[in-house]
Amino acid sequence: MMNNSELPREAVENLPAFFCAAQADSGRILMLNQAAADLFGDIETIAEAGDGNTLLISAGDKVDGRFEYNSNIGGRWYWISHYPVTWADDVKAEVFVGVDYGRLRNFNGFSIEESFTDALKGPINALDRLEKQVKQFRDGAADAFSVCYLDVDGVKSVNDTLGEIGGDAYIITVIKVVKSSIRKSDIFIHIGGDDFLLIFPKCPYEVVENIMTTVVKKLDVINIDNESECNYSVSYGIMDVNANELADVDLIMSTIRQRMRAMKERVGVVCW
Fold first, then answer.
1. Which of 39, 53, 66, 214 has the greatest number of beta carbons closer than 10 A?
2. Treating both helix axes as pointing N-terminal to C-terminal, what angle do 114-138 and 249-267 enclose, rounded to 10 degrees?
3. Euclidean distance between the first and final Cα of the chain, in Å?
């Protein structure tokens, strides 16, 4: 847990991201940088930041510890990192730092807080690889392809029940099932936490849907024989990139994340 002395106002204002600090028990806002104020307005609690957005659950509803997740704010997707902190007078607080996915590709020289940078390496790598695939397609050097955003369901519940070691084992099992179901030519990238990006060269939507259906069926088989307290499941969103007007990284990421979240909602999985 970092101390708020590590987060001076000047450093917070210079972050290429929005910054919100809220009291842990009440959700009362302790600090907003200008980017957050521009995005959310004059809010008094973190819950108000979620009005009209799939944004932040009240700070008091979050478990302790650092985690990352995706949220839609005003029609744009953000990669949000959460950190517990000790504020002035030993007040327990929580910090939320959100970076617009559209800015990640220009994310250079950010060294204010090393852990913030580490949390963003996965998304940056994913976007870089997707950008390369899109460019090859636009230049005629690559055929049409499909992209899939994969989210492992229920990781928080598994961590609560079986501990972090059990949660890691849960994710690793899903990774093994996915890798056993895709081709050697397919690209599998860990974005961060329980989120993954898959790129399927020369593979139409229908084939990727069949692949992901196979993943789900394999997990169902594991669940039948599974004696632990966890139930393996995933949610995903797929997009077929087969025309130049579709070859846009921001469009692709927004579309597949929305489709992933729609799948979660259909099956009743809680979305952060």
1. 39
2. 110
3. 22
